[in-house]
Amino acid sequence: MRGETGSGAVARRGVTIAALGVVLLLGVTGTGVAVPPPPPNPSDSEINSSKAEANAKAGDVGRLTNQLAQAESKLAQLNDEVELKMEEANKARVDAESAQDAAAQADREARSARTEADAAQAAIDKARADLDKFAAASFQQGSTIGSVSAYLTADSPKELLGRAQLLDAVGGSRLNALDTMKRAQTEKSNKDATARKKLEIAQERKREAEAAKHEADNAQSAAQHAQDTQATQNELLEADKANVEKQLFEAQQKVSGLQGQRQRYEDWKAQKAREDEERARQAALAASRPSQGGGGRPSGRPVQSAPAGASVEAVVQRALSQLGLPYAWGGGNTSGPTRGIRDGGTADRYGDYMKIGFDCSGLMIYAFAGVRALPHYSGYQYNAGRKVPLSQMRRGDMLFWGGSARGIHHVAMYLGNGQMVEAPQSGLRVRIAPVRYGGIMPYATRLIG
Questions:
Q1: I need a surface site. Which of 45, 78, 192, 401 has the fewest CB within 10 A?
Q2: Tens digit of pLDDT for each residue in 86-137?
Q3: Active site residue ranges
């Protein structure tokens, strides 16, 4: 209280002295106290011109913003197209590998069939040679069997006829055996022909699969080129937009500066008028009560405080255990992350072939390893289980994106509460993200329950 009283007294004395000073100055000179010079006061035409310039720049920014929004939308579509082409290349790679395996198996079967046919023919040739040799030796030795010629003699035509009948019987037996072997050789030859036909079909499918893979690789390369071109255009638009935004900022600053000058000038005028009124009031007060002064302490309110199993959970936890691992195109199997593979495009640019991680379908292969084996292609995974409408999707279901079942380019696992876990794309990592409904397929795929 003592400090407040002393301060009040000092304030009152100061006001009294000031008032007396004003009275003296007014009384002696007849003029007011000198005031600071007025700040610059820009003209209305200057302010209006700067506003027009700022409005023009704002219009340019709006136009570039619209162009950039369209460009970014197109780039997003191209990104989806690249993802689709990457998955199609993935499908073509899987199909080509399957065709290669089928062709190799057909080739092995054809070789085996040819070997069996050749062996049957060789056996027939040997049997025929033995039969000819047997017949010749029998007639030369005068018996049907050379080893018993010493016990059989032909003293009469009757005995000779009996010997000939015996030879005919034994020869007929061998001929029957020869016929059986010929039939076996025919069957082997038929198998050989069938195997050759299967091999031709398998090799044709292999050529078709390799051609499809080549076409898919070319399509992916073209999509990547289009994406790169659009990305470059976006960068140019971004640079133009940033430059015009800078010009807009400078124009707005100029407007603000001129308006600020005008406001400061108006404030100066108002302050000067208040000071003039205060001088007159203080002079009148000092003249009427020269011994009194006033002072006070402002009041205020306190500041307020600022206010791998087969269950769904096993599958989900298996997927979540890989959070943070890098995306690697072609990576991932039932055992975990694997090194990515080259794709000749986006994945190579991000060095996926040097990373250990997952792509979108590889993560699903790992997550569902305890349920069933999935192919390494999201389009095939879409048809791997029961379809359920998105309105009925639940934790552990697979979600897919694409224009159709044939054009699927991405897969993720639904976690519930609008969240999903996914291996998104090259350059990113396995993550939890909100479900994206743009381009999503109308059905989820359920493997459990």
A1: 45
A2: 888 889 989 989 998 998 998 898 888 888 888 888 888 887 787 777 767 6
A3: 360, 410, 422
